Amino acid sequence: MSRSAHPAGPRHADVLPEGHYSAPPADLNALDPKVWAHTVTRDQDGVVSVGGIEVTRLAEEFGTPAYFVDEADFRARARAWRTAFGHDADVFYAGKAFLSRAVVRWLHEEGLNLDVCSGGELATALSAGMPADRIAFHGNNKSAQEIERAIEAGVGRIVLDSFQEIVRVAHIASSLGKRQRVQIRVTVGVEAHTHEFIATAHEDQKFGIPLAGGQAAEAVRRALQLDGLELIGIHSHIGSQIFDMSGFEVAAHRVVGLLKDIRDEHGVELPEIDLGGGLGIAYTSDDDPRDPHEIAKALTEIVTRECESAKLRTPRISVEPGRAIVGPTAFTLYEVGTIKPLDALRTYVSVDGGMSDNIRTALYDAEYSVSLVSRTSDAEPMLVRVVGKHCESGDIVVKDAFLPADLAPGDLIAVPATGAYCRSMASNYNHVLRPPVVAVNDGEARVIVRRETEEDLLRLDVG
Ligand code: LLP
């Protein structure tokens, strides 16, 4: 295949190199509703819009790269989780997926609670008016200051992650003259089917106290003896981007088993269990995520069944979805820069962002899809790798995808499903400025996290 015959690189399935992709999609202009936010559509003129505003207008007004969040979709997903679990359960949105004051207000208005895991997340939540008693405080190494601040603020629960922390939180609470509501995070020993870096319930990792060897039971024994603590429940989080419900079933089974042991040993029935977050979303058309109602039904049924057979009162269940609420509601808009066809390999399409606004591809080998959004094209599909502007060859945003072969510098392309763990894990690598987050709703767009400026960077640089 000579370059002159195919100046834009290889396009046909029979010459494609190895990769994650399947065949090129039948229609490159189509937008799969599985991966795009609810209000994303392609207009008559071929331009994609979100919340009723065309991306070309958004790019003009807010620049690129930028994250655009479909506020109506965010609220709808938050509400769907809330209603799926009903009044006998609590939904704590996991702020680590993406947090800003606007998001805190949306959650508050939609009746969700919030899980935070650092002083910074706690400060954001409190400053946006989330009632402290609806906040859960997590983390495997909370500092004394963070613990003190959380207790003083009156957080609804602190999730204890180690033996040392049991003592530390009890001590700080007592010294403040308070009794803190706590859960103990246990490691249930489940292999979640996900990337190793985001699996958290197998034994050889840093989170939680293992059920194995009676360690969790010992943690409960100690917590029950300390005046500064009110032990309200057991917590388990098995990992992230999980589609298979069986891991949650095993976790629920083991957590209820511990509740039963606690009842037998101490005569105490703990009133709550938290089954964490981790439900997967569609990054590409190949992913099939579950509906929150289906998840709620499955989790509630298993906990109820296990409790009935152990003759326990069914505890109040809580869950902590992050990605499943915010992930699908946003996309990143980029402008195409240089285009570099490599013979018999693929075409490298460089965009004006990269690993600083989406580290997930480099870190977890994550898969994304991408579409041309500023126009339609009838050109044939071209195999591309969308890369950023950073000084690393691992600076890949979308590893393998198809874009039309007439793609040109200045076109706008968008990567869907970037609402979770993209802005929240963004960096300033190469002193690239972090993009803004713009909420779009019903024909209006407003910045909820502004674009970083060079002054922001220089302000931190002392001397
Ligand atoms: N609860 C706890 C205790 C967690 O540690 C996490 C995520 C969640 C809830 C929310 O999980 P989600 O529903 O969002 O999957 N940076 C990685 C994900 C790390 C998840 C950390 N903990 C990624 O980009 O895939």
Contiguous helical run count: 12
The rounded distance between the terminal residues' Cα atoms is 56 Å
Task: Please give the largest β-sheet.
Answer: 9 strands, mixed
Gyration radius from CA atoms, angstroms: 24 Å
Strand content: 15-25%
CATH fold field value of the largest domain: Lyase, Ornithine Decarboxylase, Chain A, domain 1
Shape, principal axes of CA atoms: globular
Secondary structure: helix percent: 25-40%
Q: Tell me what the CATH architecture of the largest domain is.
A: Beta Barrel
The CATH superfamily title of the largest domain: Lyase, Ornithine Decarboxylase, Chain A, domain 1
Oligomer: single chain
Integer count of domains: 2
List key phrases describing it.
463 residues; alpha/beta; Lyase, Ornithine Decarboxylase, Chain A, domain 1; TIM Barrel; nine-stranded mixed β-sheet; 12 helices; 21 strands; binds ligand LLP
